[in-house]
Write a structure and sequence with these properties.
Shape: elongated
Number of strands: 8
Distance between the termini: 6 Å
Largest sheet: 4 strands, antiparallel
Length: 138
């Protein structure tokens, strides 16, 4: 077990579980290895493990702004139904588009109004606080 406390640039392996305040688990891993600062963890949970050593665990409460962020109205777009190439569009459907650089942009159909489809490109967990249980393996 490493005796070096976690900090920027530290390579760590941990077990974690992410859940919503209602207890619903949204993600978990038995072994995740990464370098602190590489963007693998939510910003709020990354800074919260600074100083931890192998064998230690923590329960963290991450506010939405330090987790998946707050919803941004600029990420909600109205599009003509014709742009969906005869897809069976229903509320809650996850659709995917590509930006100018070829990156995938998933969005959720929020509403259908006449021939317009309202698509929300915010992360589905934007605006939600997250609970994190973490155990530092090494």
């Amino acid at each position: 077990m490493a005796e070096v406390p976690v900090g920027p640039g530290t390579r760590v392996t941990l077990k974690f579980s992410l859940s919503l305040p209602n207890g619903e688990t949204i993600d978990q891993a038995e072994s995740a290895t990464f370098e602190v600062g590489d963007g693998s963890l939510l910003p709020g949970s990354e800074s919260a493990i600074f100083g931890m050593k192998a064998g230690e665990s923590a329960s963290l409460e991450i506010e939405a702004r330090h987790g998946f962020g707050e919803p941004n109205e600029d990420n909600v777009h109205k599009m003509k139904q014709i742009n969906f190439n005869d897809m069976d569009i229903v509320e809650g459907l996850v659709v995917s588009f590509k930006d100018g650089e070829g990156n995938e942009l998933p969005g959720v159909v929020k509403e259908i109004v006449g021939d317009l489809v309202v698509v929300d490109f915010n992360h589905p967990l934007a605006g939600k606080n997250i609970s994190v249980e973490v155990y530092l393996v090494n």
